[in-house]
Amino acid sequence: MEALAPYVQFHGRGLEATEEVARIMPARTSNHVLDVGSGIGGPARYFATRFGCKVTGIDLTPEFCEVARQLTQLRGLQEQVKIEVGDALVMPFAEASFDGAYSLNVSMNIADKSGFYREIHRVLKPAAWLVLSELARGDGGEPNYPTPWAASERTSFLSTSEETRQGLLEAQFDVLTLRSTVQEALEFGARSRALAARGEKPPHRAVMLIHGAIARQAMENSARGLAEGKLIPVEIFARKR
Ligand SMILES: C[S@@+](CC[C@H](N)C(=O)[O-])C[C@H]1O[C@@H](n2cnc3c(N)ncnc32)[C@H](O)[C@@H]1O
Fold it and tell me: Which domain holds residue 31?
């Protein structure tokens, strides 16, 4: 598991950010948790192992789901972690199915934010929790593209953190915490660049693995966006009202 971590945690700061999310996630062994935009399943397997809970992931990209299922099988977690191909905006789950949900670095690709929050709200049980980790729009203007989530501005849908807070409130969530992790992201970037300059591998390599030719430019634009205040990583903890 540790050996794969740099490649399967497909979001900023990789495993480090996943571990921070775990600290605010009140998951229990008996819980069934939803991963919205589960990618290749690194977070789903991490939380299932750490909390002993069941995790169902849903993702729009069939190839990612296939890799996620194979890695889950290799880890022997197939009874605990299920992966479905599907759209976060119309999920194939009944109302009040889950005790909690999280979504890591997904919403930047979703134009219909209120539909996204509404659909998550629908499948959660009353008072269930929601953790979102995403990049918010800062006040420094539009970032340069490509970024790790979008080839151009056309497929990028960033909200400010206040718009996200408002959207969640309107979707009947109480927002209990919303914090910027920009300092952590800048420090992580500096550490990674120092390692690369010494010819060592940086701790997070999922973007390089998955994005191929545009990866380097995308990472540079993302780092520049953070440094210039155009991008603000945020971690949000909310509860269904
Ligand atoms: C940056 S990856 C994050 C993957 C995973 N959450 C992680 O942190 O390892 C974003 C994921 O969101 C998925 N995605 C984007 N739009 C989606 C949608 N409307 N419904 C479901 N998944 C979506 C993409 O296919 C991709 O796997």
Answer: 5-138+156-181+232-240
pLDDT at 193: 86
Output the CA 8–ligand 1 centroid distance in Å. 12
Average pLDDT, integer, range 127-152: 96
Is residue 221 domain-resident? no
Domain membership flag for residue 29:
yes
Specify the number of domains making up the chain: 1
Q: How far apart are CA 207 and CA 42, in angstroms?
A: 13
Q: Is the pTM of this model over 0.85?
A: yes
Q: Quote the CA–CA distance of 6 and 162 in Å, as a whole number.
A: 31
Best residue among 106, 123, 133, 207 to mutate for probing ligand 1's pocket (most ligand atoms within 8 Å of CB) is 106
Ligand 1 atom with least separation from CA of 64: 27
Q: What CATH number has the domain bearing residue 53?
A: 3.40.50.150
Q: 132: which 2 tokens? A: 């979102």
Ligand 1 centre and the CA of 37: distance in Å?
4
